[in-house]
């Protein structure tokens, strides 16, 4: 597993919704703030305490939609970060 502690500034984003990773799984937990998470053709709003688990091959991205920093923990297996 490859865990990371993420700090996204206001308006910052990560990923490209048209691209997935190689085989694996990922988990993301929002410690504080709010994210718009795009997974394939679906959009989710994740707030403090929310999490999402998904197949890493599915195209995904996320963006901080909070007025301030959003803090998160992301874990991938196998490690890809």
From TrEMBL:
Q: Which domain of life is it from?
A: Bacteria
Where would one find coiled-coil regions in this protein? none
InterPro entries the record matches: Cupin_2, RmlC-like_jellyroll, RmlC_Cupin_sf
Q: Which residues form the Cupin type-2 domain?
A: 11-75
Q: What is this protein called?
A: Cupin type-2 domain-containing protein
Native source organism of the sequence: Paenibacillus cookii
């Amino acid at each position: 597993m490859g865990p990371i502690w993420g700090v996204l500034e206001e308006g910052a984003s990560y990923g490209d919704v048209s691209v997935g990773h190689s085989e694996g799984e990922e988990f993301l937990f929002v410690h504080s703030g709010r994210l718009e998470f795009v997974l394939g053709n679906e959009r989710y709003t994740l707030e403090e305490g929310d999490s999402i688990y998904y197949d890493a091959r599915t195209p995904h991205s996320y963006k901080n939609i909070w007025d301030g920093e959003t803090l998160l923990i992301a874990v991938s297996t196998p490690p890809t970060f």
